[in-house]
UniProtKB/TrEMBL annotation:
Enzyme class: ligase
Record-level Gene Ontology MF annotations: DNA ligase (NAD+) activity; metal ion binding
Organism of derivation: Mariniradius saccharolyticus AK6
Upper taxonomic lineage: Bacteria, Pseudomonadati, Bacteroidota, Cytophagia, Cytophagales
An annotated GO cellular component: cytosol
Sites where the protein binds Zn(2+): 407, 410, 425, 431
CDD domains the record matches: BRCT_DNA_ligase_like (cd17748), LIGANc (cd00114)
Name of the protein in its database record: DNA ligase
């Protein structure tokens, strides 16, 4: 490369890296993987070394990638918050170690090894034992002050008491969103029709930078601490500092290790390669830090990184396996997600059987064919992905995968909207997963609040045809005797496309044997998961012999199952056995094979199959078959459910309106509309102009409302719910006034305010008897002018000569 080329490349790389830094730190999103990003940075550093004349002071190799957001006060860090050098190769780690050894004149040293937590760095400053400031890393020199948000993290001590607490100190750590919380939030968002959060790191970073700490508190962030700083901290080694902050009540991950040389550190790295996936948060490597503070000082820093530490990052692990088939999952919003079913393969500590394919484009991009040998990778994310096809191994004549054109759940023709990657099932009203989504929304705590109707129960009520619309909940009382004994937990079943019912192997073995617990059988099967099922049955016989429990009888039953499976005409399914086959062994001569197959056909459960079979069973048989069933509705559960449904009739109009699930009508909008129109008929009849007059209502919302009320079925639903006794108007006593100070006044507010958020000021005006008006008109008594009031509004108001008052003046009118 000649200097001109190098210069061009350095500039191009810098531009690209700056772009990704901006996305990553400012917008909390990514376009490329960390590995790809690190490669770009590495190339830049290499070129700058080779051509030092093009090393500019503002190069991304010289600076920490983030900056401040401008939405918070900022504070300067007393000690800079730097990056870490990183590497993906053990050889480079050894080279780092050699540099360290040389730098320390070959004296003894130790590495303190910690996992590299994938979250957001935070610095906490304590004075006289109290937390005074929490600051993000920002650009390394200055960061955003996010103290209020950080205070909502439960295990961060606001006051530190303990031995040897210095007057002033700083601790640093990583704020993260636990994986479980992340999943919970996304589940919830899906139910409420909000877009999912991309990944736990971005979610944590975005949360920390929110303006409303009330929302932050709900997110349940957590934090691990890994650094203590200050003038008189009284310790001279990192391991002592970690023990100290732990004794002061800071949360330290128990995963650290002190290595006496690089070989021990490499051993530690290896031991966590797979185990790290069991941790409650994402980790992407191991950080090695020189343990002794004096030695750290000797080694020093570059502009961007300490020379006494390095991060070893795990590369995504990959494996090859066979593509067996593709299933299509229908989400609660009707979005179709293709999932690849793979021959089981061991990858990064788990057995992988499935990989996400995202959408049709991904299948085209990979050019997947039936039976392809594929590369699967497991990186930071929880679900592995297919990264490529081994073309040389493609079978001749293999057909390329064609995307489905009908919904696998309800058969409706799929649609794909302009510019969208995903296909959708448009049957929003009756497609089972979509119906489930709507019902979950309807009963949600923030809507009708029927918490006795969890997902499992809802799914059962939908699958068994009891609930086709929210109105059906209010007719369940009349059907309660039919609910008794109805089976839940359909997860234990599988059905082929043509309607043959299968049950999970552990359940079948549990019912066929005696004195062996279900959990023991499940554990056994989980350990054998990679073996073919017939071999698992063989091994299970050995397991029974070892357990010494009813050996002859239990082994005999398993052998009968083996034989029955071998002679059965039903197709085999790994990990599952046909319900007809298992029942055949349990009911003896009460029914023929043909009858059983017929009975289980198109049924969803053992319960349903038995109802259809309609034979009288002996007591012993009943008992055993009961072991086969999932949980079922019992009197207590039914009573509980009906009570919750009854109580929901008291939910106020705004909650009912939200529960209807009208597109684009979130909780706040529902509240706004309910308070403004007071009842559903007024809302239905509202004209576009009337709607747009309301502050916070835009074109999209008006369109959604019109679409909703145009649909006859929706109107029927509303009628039915009204008949059931739900509130479709604001009850008079609920609008109690705080005062009459604004009675008779027509008021508008515009701009930003210190004491109110957007909708709060409307509530405030109304609760003091005033009328809030959404647009500038002559009828207004005054306008409350906030910061940055809209210029067109201001101009119009001035033209009409309407009085404008400040927020402070307004508060004086009300509060005196
Ligand atoms: N994919 C992208 O587009 C993109 C863009 C920018 C940055 N990145 C990634 O972000 C990272 C960039 O660097 P960075 O400066 O934010 O982080 P870094 O990799 O330089 O490491 C420093 C950070 O590691 C964290 N950390 C976690 N565990 C730690 C521990 N035990 N001890 C000390 N620190 C610990 C701290 O937050 C600290 O600020 C790289 O991993 C890079 O791949 C990716
Ligand atoms: Zn469908």
């Amino acid at each position: 490369m000649n200097p001109a080329e190098a210069k061009a490349r350095i500039e191009a790389l810098s531009k690209e890296i700056n772009h990704h830094n901006h996305l990553y730190y400012q917008e909390d999103r990514i376009e490329i993987s960390d590995f790809e990003f690190d490669r770009l940075l590495e190339e830049l550093i290499r070129l700058e070394k080779e051509f030092p004349q093009f090393l500019y002071p503002d190069s991304p190799s010289q600076r920490v990638g983030g900056t401040i957001t401008k939405e918070f006060e900022t504070a300067e860090h007393e000690y800079k918050m730097l990056s870490l050098g990183n590497t993906y190769s053990p050889e480079e780690l050894v080279a780092f170690d050699e540099r360290v050894a040389k730098g320390l004149g070959h004296r003894d040293y130790a590495y303190f090894c910690e996992l590299k937590f994938d979250g957001v760095a935070i610095s906490l400053v304590y004075e006289n034992g109290r937390l005074v400031r929490a600051v993000t890393r920002g650009d390394g020199t200055r960061g955003d002050v996010v103290t209020e948000n950080v205070k909502t993290i439960r295990n961060i001590p606001l006051v530190v008491q303990g031995k040897n607490v210095p007057d002033k100190f700083e601790v640093r750590g990583e704020v993260f969103l636990p994986l479980k919380e992340f999943e919970k939030i996304n589940n919830e968002r899906e139910i409420l029709g909000e877009p999912p959060l991309a990944n736990p790191r971005n979610a944590a970073s975005g949360t920390l930078k929110m303006q409303d700490s009330g929302v932050v508190a709900k997110r349940r962030l957590n934090c691990y601490f890994y650094q203590l700083l200050g003038e008189d901290i009284g310790v001279s080694k990192h391991d002592e500092a970690i023990a100290l902050i732990e004794s002061w009540g800071f949360n330290v991950s128990p995963t650290h290790f002190k290595a006496n040389n690089i070989q021990e550190a490499l051993g530690f790295i290896d031991s966590w390669r797979e185990k790290r996936f069991t941790l409650p948060l994402d980790t992407d490597g191991v950080v090695l830090k020189i343990n002794d503070y004096d030695q750290r000082e000797e080694l020093g820093f570059t502009a961007k990184i300490p020379r006494w530490a390095i991060a070893y990052k795990y590369q995504a692990e990959s494996a090859q396996t066979r593509l067996l088939s593709i299933s299509y999952q229908v989400g609660r919003t009707g979005a179709i997600t293709p999932v690849a079913n793979l021959a089981p393969v061991h990858l990064a500590g788990t057995t992988v059987k499935r990989a996400s394919l995202h959408n049709a484009n991904e299948i085209i991009r990979l050019d997947l064919h039936e039976g392809d040998l594929v590369h699967v990778e497991k990186g930071g994310e929880i679900i592995p992905k297919i990264t490529g096809v081994v073309l040389e191994k493609r079978q001749p004549g293999a057909k390329s995968i064609t995307y489905i054109d009908h919904c696998p759940e309800c058969g409706t023709h799929l649609v794909r909207k302009e510019g969208e990657a995903k296909h959708f099932c448009p049957n929003t009203k009756a497609c089972p997963p979509q119906l489930l989504g709507r019902m979950e929304h309807f009963v949600h705590q923030r809507a009708m609040d029927i918490d006795s109707l969890g997902t499992e129960r809802l799914r059962t009520l939908i699958d068994e045809g009891f609930v086709k619309s929210p109105a059906d909940f209010y007719g369940l009382k009349e059907k309660q005797h039919q609910l008794l004994g109805l089976e839940m937990g359909q997860d234990q079943y599988q059905k082929t496309d043509d309607g043959i019912l299968y049950i999970g192997l552990p359940k079948a073995l549990f019912a066929l044997t005696e004195l062996i617990s279900l959990s023991a059988i499940e554990k056994f099967c989980a350990e054998q998961i990679e073996k073919p099922m017939m071999q698992v049955l063989q091994l299970f016989q050995g397991y029974i012999r070892n357990s010494k429990k009813k050996v002859a009888q239990n082994v005999g039953m398993v052998q009968l199952l083996e034989n029955a499976l071998l002679v059965s005409s039903l197709p085999p399914m790994e990990d599952y056995v046909p319900v007809a086959v298992v029942l055949g062994l349990l009911v003896g001569n009460k029914a023929s094979t043909g009858q059983l197959i017929e009975a289980a056909y198109h049924q969803n459960t053992v319960h349903g199959t038995l109802l259809k079979l309609d034979v009288k069973l002996g007591d012993g048989q009943e008992e055993r078959i009961k072991k086969l069933k999932g949980n079922s509705f019992q009197e207590g559960v039914i009573g509980n459910m009906l009570e919750g449904i009854e109580a929901s009739k008291n939910q106020p109009f705004e909650k009912v309106l939200f529960a209807l699930g009208i597109r684009n009508i979130g909780e706040n909008t529902a509240q706004l509309l309910a308070r403004h129109f007071k009842n559903i008929d007024a809302l239905r009849e509202a004209s576009t102009e009337q709607l747009l007059e309301i502050n916070g209502v835009g074109e999209t919302l008006v369109h959604s409302l019109h679409e909703y009320f145009k649909d006859k079925e929706n109107l029927q639903l509303i009628e039915k719910l009204k008949d059931a006794g739900l509130n479709f108007s604001v009850s008079e006593q609920s609008v109690s006034l705080a005062s009459n100070k604004l009675a008779g006044l027509k008021i508008l507010a515009s701009g930003r305010f210190t004491h109110f958020k957007r909708d709060e000021i409307i509530d405030f005006v109304e609760s003091h008897g005033g009328t809030y008006v959404g647009s500038v008109s002559k009828s207004l008594d005054f306008i409350i002018e906030g910061e940055e009031m809209g210029p067109s509004k201001k101009e119009k108001a001035e033209k009409l000569g309407i009085k404008m008052i400040s927020e402070a003046e307004f508060l004086k009118i009300v509060n005196g």
